[in-house]
Structures are given as C-alpha cells and as structure tokens.
C-alpha cells in the first residue's frame, strides 16, 4: 500500500515540481512588504521574504520548508540601492552577488562574493546569503570587519543598528523583520585586505575555511567562516595579531588558540586540517598586510 | 501590490513575444517554458542549480530557470536557446563539435552567448569563470571552449553576421 501511495504521489508531483502551494506577493515598497508579511502571518501562512530564491526554491522542492507565502523584495527600491550616501556606502539586500562584485565599491566584498558559480551569482543576493539558512554566509565577513550598520524594516518600524549587535552565528532578526540595507564607512572599504578560501576540490565547493582580513588604522581585523560551523568576527584573535609583544611567527597559532570555539569536523575535513588551513591563512595575511603597510 | 494565489494568468515576454500563461506561484520558469510554452530547449537536468542545462537569459543575464519562479520573471525579457538560433555562437558549437550527447548544449550556448555580449573579447580566466556554471557529463569541455574561442574570432571579423 505504501509503495502504491508513493507511486501515486510521484505521478501527482513530478520530481521537478514544488509540491506545496503558496501565495506570492510582490510589494513595490517597504510599507507594502511589511503589510504583506503582517497579513500573511495573521492568516497563518508562515511567510518568508524572497530575494534571489536560490535557497528557497531548492528547499521548497526538497520539502525542507513549506512556506504558505513568499514576499518578493526584488522590486523594492531601497533593497536595490548601491551608492554612496555622505561618508557611507549603501548596499541593498536584494543586490545580486555579481552586481556587488562588479561594482568594486568594496574590494574585499567583491572578492568574498565570488562564491558558487557565475550564473547563480546573477540571482543569489547579499541578503539571501547573509540571512539565509546555509551556514557559511560568506559575504557577512567583510561587513563584520567594516563595523557595518544594518537597516531593517519590520512590523515594529524601521531601525538602523550595528551588525555586530544582531549577528551571533546568524543574523537575529525580530519576527517579520526584513534586512533592507548594509552600510559601511567609505574609509573601511579602502583599507588593505587579505582573503583566502580553501575548499576540497573546486572553487564552487562550500568553504572548508574562508578567512578575511582588513587593516584599519594599522590594526588587523579578522573574520572567518567554515572553520567553526558559523561565521564570526575573531576579536580574540585580533588582539593577538595586533600585540607587538607576540613574535610574528607565533601569532597564527596563538591567535587560533584565543578563539573560544572548536573546529568543525565533518566528512569533508577534520578539525586539525581546518586548523592548519586557518593557521596558513593567518600567516599569509600577516605577510601580505605587513608588506602593503 | 501584486498578489498571486491559486492558478493565475500572467504575461511573460519570451524571445521578444508576449505570451500569456496559467501558472501556480510555485511553478518554476523552467516548467512553464517547457510544459506550457513548448520551449523545450532549456533542459531539466539536476534541477538543483548545479548543472546549468536550464540556463536562459533574464534581461540579458544568464540564470538557471529551475531556481526561478515563473511569477518572478514577469516584467523581464526572457531569452531561451530558441531565441538565439542561427547566431555566431550556435554555429561555432556546430563547427567545433562543442557537443557530444547534446543535453547540456543549449545551456552552454545560452551562457556563451551572454558571455560574448558582456565580454566580446574575453580572456581565458573570464571564459572559465562563466562556463564553470555549466556541466557537461560527457566531459566535452575542450570542444566547448574551442567553440567559444572560434565565436570570438568570428565576431572580431568585419562582417560577423550576428
């Protein structure tokens, strides 16, 4: 019987079909987006904001998520901004990674946005990468290093807050809150930087370790993802890297020892291997950044 | 605000024509192109955004149509492999045997077409970066790369006929 039901189910839902129905909203502005969320939530539809959809369509097809409503934010002007505003550079959350990379507004971000393949990057957005479900969230690293602010909109109104106040392993938004923009100071965008991304086979793979470094006023900042299962700004490591009392050759190992988390262990790589990769990244970053200063 | 629920009628601009289709919001663009509009050039391969066999252009940029809802494509210019037939790029794939079984070929041609629109004289790294979005399980990559280079050469000539 179960086998027969499975056959019937496959006939009804071909493998390429998203089986659950949902309501699609396309708001023209932030107020409409929040209104759509509030209405859908009231109706018990468990809405999600939809940007590039690379994760959402895949997870819907797999049945991992079953939202009753999707709210497409790609036509909201504030979410598409990419320009300068006084001393700040504004990045809208619905910008694709190719748009961000091609702009060259923040060279470290351009490099960090070089994930997945070029065609997917025409859809994958900044907001989707940072606020999505996959744990790597590579593009948050340059924003953590730049002490970015985030502009949010939600049923409780709009607010601008430091990214570091909201980001702990993932972006912690209030219910119904939408990531609208990320803002950085122009001076942060031009600081010397170093980037390294280690993978198992091809550059399209998820990172085993991805580390970003940014030097501002002669002090090195460091952020990493892949190594610990979530992205983080490694402030404890930064204290070691910027401590002139620590010998240069000792800094990579001591910086890692200062980070209060264990390395990820999975079928792609063991913890000691990831540790070696991160140590190597730190050593190379120190060499590169010292050379540039 | 646009709100679509159940089965709705939308207009899609495909290969320069307006086409009315009945869709569920959950239908992907690939499904609608193939099953409703009869445009079967875009292939259903992995349907996970990995293989690129379903590549089409949205406003000139290559995208994987298995990862896009048809309703999201409303208001954009969609170009499929059927819309770029008899182009220099397509002919180059034929001349250079840039195909084996042919399943992945439409995706490669569409992506290569967009590549040469954006970069008429791409360097090796740019070609690699764009084409790594597509998989050829017959592993005929050399012929594919040769086809792109041949198309570049043809387009450089005074009368490329594209």
Task: Explain what this protein looks like in three dimensions.
The complex is a heterodimer of chains A (293) and B (162). With 293 residues, chain A is α+β, with helices and mostly antiparallel strands. Chain A folds into three domains: 2-72, Uridine Diphospho-n-acetylenolpyruvylglucosamine Reductase, domain 2 (2-Layer Sandwich); 77-188, Uridine Diphospho-n-acetylenolpyruvylglucosamine Reductase, domain 3; 191-292, CO dehydrogenase flavoprotein, C-terminal domain (Enolase-like, domain 1), CATH 3.30.390. Chain A has twelve helices and 14 strands. Chain A has a five-stranded antiparallel β-sheet. The longest helix of chain A has 22 residues, at 271-292. The radius of gyration of chain A is 21 Å and the shape is globular. Chain A starts with a helix and ends with a helix. Chain B is of the alpha+beta class and 162 residues long. Chain B folds into two domains: 8-81, Ubiquitin-like (UB roll) (Roll); 85-156, Orthogonal Bundle (DNA polymerase, domain 1), CATH 1.10.150. In chain B, 33% of the residues lie in helices and 17% in strands. Chain B has five helices and six strands. In chain B, strand 4 (55-58) and strand 5 (61-64) form a beta hairpin. The chains are: A alpha+beta (293), B alpha+beta (162). The A-B interface holds A 15-28, 32, 35-36, 50, 53-54, 57-58, 60-61, 70, 72, 74, 98, 117-120, 122-123, 202-204 and B 1-6, 24-28, 30-31, 44, 47-49, 52, 55, 58, 61-64, 66-69, 71-72, 111, 129-130, 132-134.
Task: Produce the secondary structure layout.
The complex is a heterodimer of chains A (293) and B (162).
Chain A: H1 2-12, E1 23-26, H2 30-42, E2 48-50, H3 54-62, E3 69-72, E4 82-85, E5 88-92, H4 97-103, H5 107-112, H6 126-131, H7 140-145, E6 149-154, E7 157-162, H8 163-166, E8 167-168, E9 170-171, E10 178-185, H9 186-189, E11 193-198, E12 209-216, E13 219-225, E14 232-233, H10 235-241, H11 251-258, H12 271-292
Parallel strand pairs in A: 1-3, 2-3
Antiparallel strand pairs in A: 4-5, 5-10, 6-7, 6-10, 8-9, 11-12, 12-13, 13-14
Helix pairs in contact in A: 10-11, 11-12
Chain B: E1 2-4, E2 8-14, E3 17-23, H1 29-36, E4 55-58, E5 61-64, E6 77-79, H2 88-95, H3 105-118, H4 124-131, H5 141-156
Parallel strand pairs in B: 2-6
Antiparallel strand pairs in B: 2-3, 4-5, 4-6
Helix pairs in contact in B: 2-5
């Amino acid at each position: 019987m179960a086998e027969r039901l499975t056959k019937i189910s496959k006939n009804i839902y071909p493998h390429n079909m998203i089986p659950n129905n949902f309501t699609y909203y396309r708001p023209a502005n932030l107020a409409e987006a929040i209104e759509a969320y509030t209405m859908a939530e009231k109706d018990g539809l468990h809405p999600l904001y939809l940007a590039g959809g690379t994760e959402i369509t895949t997870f819907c097809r797999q049945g991992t998520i079953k939202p009753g409503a999707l709210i497409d934010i790609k036509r909201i002007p504030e979410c598409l901004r990419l320009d300068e505003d006084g001393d700040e550079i504004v990045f809208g959350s619905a910008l694709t990674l190719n748009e961000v990379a091609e702009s060259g507004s923040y060279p470290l971000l351009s490099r960090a946005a070089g994930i997945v393949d070029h065609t997917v990057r025409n859809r994958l957005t900044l907001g989707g990468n940072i606020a999505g479900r996959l744990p790597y969230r590579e593009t948050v690293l340059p924003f953590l290093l730049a002490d970015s602010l985030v502009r949010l909109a939600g049923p409780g109104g709009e607010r601008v807050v430091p990214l570091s106040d909201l980001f702990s392993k993932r972006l912690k938004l209030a219910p119904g809150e939408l990531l609208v923009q990320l803002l950085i100071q122009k001076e942060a965008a031009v600081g010397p930087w170093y980037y390294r991304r280690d993978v198992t086979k091809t550059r399209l793979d998820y990172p085993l370790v991805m580390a970003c470094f940014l030097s501002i006023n002669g002090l090195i900042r460091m952020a990493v993802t892949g190594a610990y299962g979530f992205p983080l700004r490694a402030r404890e490591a930064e204290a070691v890297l910027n401590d002139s009392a620590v010998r240069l050759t000792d800094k990579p190992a001591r910086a890692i020892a200062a980070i209060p988390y264990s390395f990820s262990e999975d079928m792609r790589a063991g913890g000691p291997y990831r540790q070696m990769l991160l140590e190597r990244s730190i050593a190379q970053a120190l060499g590169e950044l010292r050379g540039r200063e | 605000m646009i709100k679509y629920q159940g089965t709705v009628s939308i207009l899609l601009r495909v290969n320069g024509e307006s086409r009315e289709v009945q869709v569920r919001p959950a239908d992907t663009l690939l499904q609608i192109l193939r099953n409703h509009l009869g445009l079967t050039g875009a292939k259903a391969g992995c349907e996970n955004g990995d293989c690129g066999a379903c590549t089409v252009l949205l406003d000139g940029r290559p995208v994987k149509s298995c990862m896009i809802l048809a309703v999201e494509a409303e208001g954009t210019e969609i170009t499929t492999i059927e819309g770029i037939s008899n182009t220099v790029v397509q002919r180059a794939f034929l001349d250079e045997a840039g195909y084996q079984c042919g399943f992945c070929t439409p995706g490669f041609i569409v992506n290569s077409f967009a590549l040469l629109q954006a970069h008429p004289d791409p360097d090796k790294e740019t070609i690699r970066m764009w084409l790594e979005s597509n998989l050829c399980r017959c592993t005929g990559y050399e012929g594919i790369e040769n086809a792109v280079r041949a198309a570049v050469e043809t387009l450089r000539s005074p009368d490329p006929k594209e």
